[in-house]
Amino acid sequence: MLDKLTAIEAKYSQIEARLAAPETYEDPAQAARLNKEQAELQPLVEAFRALQAAREAERQARELLSDPEMKELAQEELRQAQDDQERLEHELKILLLPKDPNDGKNVIMEIRAGVGGEEAALFAHSLYRMYSMYAEGRGWRTEVDSANETELGGIKEISFTIEGDGAWSRLKFESGVHRVQRVPETESSGRVHTSTATVAVLPEMETADVRLDPADIEMQVYRSSGAGGQHVNKTSSAVRLIHKPTGTVVECQQERSQFQNRDKAMRILASRLYEAEQEKIVGEYTQKRRSQVGSGMRNERIRTYNFPQGRVTDHRIGLTLYKIDSVMDGGLDEIIDALAAADQAERLKEEQSG
User: Using an 8 Å Cβ cutoff, are 134 and 332 in contact?
Assistant: First the structure.
């Protein structure tokens, strides 16, 4: 590990020197690439330099142990330096893990009402609101691509894009079956119902990222509309794409022009086909894993929202929080941080055992 970190630090120093040279900025594309590379390496280099400083602090503390007047202080500094080294070594092992190449991408989220009729549709709407508020809190942009609403304000299914730096890295753990336990507004007896909704999270792919043969795609156009006549468009601007080899159907109706809807639908189709291929790989891989935190399989029940008890439980890591109102208002960071840490710990185990 030391050799690898030394090489990374040397590379970082070279980038710093190039960025300090005025001629670098004569080529804006090169300057942007160097700045990006520097930002990617910075956490590793800072942790490595801190580790080196902690090792030097340990060496100096050991020298002072022989001085009776300084012994007590030296022992305290020695303990601190050793604790710092242990923490930094663990941090560096995680930072050296292979990066998910999609971590910086936007995401396409798809929510579908599951078991539970109208209550499931209302829950699907609650989940959409939760993710929208989470995105807003992080300064990300949410854009609905297509939606099938119910008369009571629920959602049978919705597809939306969240644009923002690192959206995939934060939201990729949300795929799966979400379960709700609450008293529906339509329930007069006060009985608690259990309903479900499925969430799929896809990294937004460009059409160039996935092989798409135009001959395999059938395009249909139609007039966009919504529940109760909302969003009615008098021109046929809505687009439906059918990928004939897989039967995958994508619709986009939120943009004003047919061209914009087609462009967006193509990106969604590329993302769906990419996800289907990844699910095959992940399905084989997770049979060998002890944990499936990061698998994102759609049929996996991942979380329960229990309103009577004010409880949210993530079943993959056994985390329970008694703050359901905060979570439903977009307060997901505590859950996502715990999921990311569990996934990192699992990958670190595999790296060490492999």
Answer: yes
